[in-house]
Design goal:
mainly beta, four-stranded antiparallel beta sheet, globular
């Protein structure tokens, strides 16, 4: 379980195959529900609250728009599970550990920027 407090008023919850995003401001309404996802390992909202991602057992990471729920991009990291995925503070980059290295990619385009 990974819990991170952000400045934006959104919270993401995840089960083994679905996610839900809630607005924490009263009255605390559900903003989005999505799934099912095959072999969901983790989920996270970007620091600016505009995107969310899921990481899967096959090493893939998918990024979605919070408002529309539409998929922005999918990146295949490695064949290992993507247990830990890290957003840059400005929400522009995502880092995915891949064994002894890490993959860095653009959150909006999925373009690989380095390993």
């Amino acid at each position: 379980v990974n819990i991170v407090w952000r400045r934006h008023p959104k919270i993401l919850t995840a089960s083994k195959d679905q996610i839900a995003i809630f607005d924490t401001r009263p009255p605390g309404q559900k903003l989005l529900s999505s799934g099912p996802f095959l072999q969901l390992i983790g989920a996270s909202v970007s620091p600016d609250g505009s995107m969310w991602l899921v990481s899967m057992a096959d090493g893939a990471v998918e990024i979605y728009d919070v408002e529309t729920g539409e998929k922005i991009c999918r990146v295949q990291g490695s064949q290992r599970r993507a247990h830990s995925v890290i957003w840059s503070p400005n929400s522009q980059l995502v880092l995915v550990p891949c064994g002894p290295t890490a993959l860095i990619f653009d959150a909006r385009t999925g373009e690989r920027l380095g390993t």
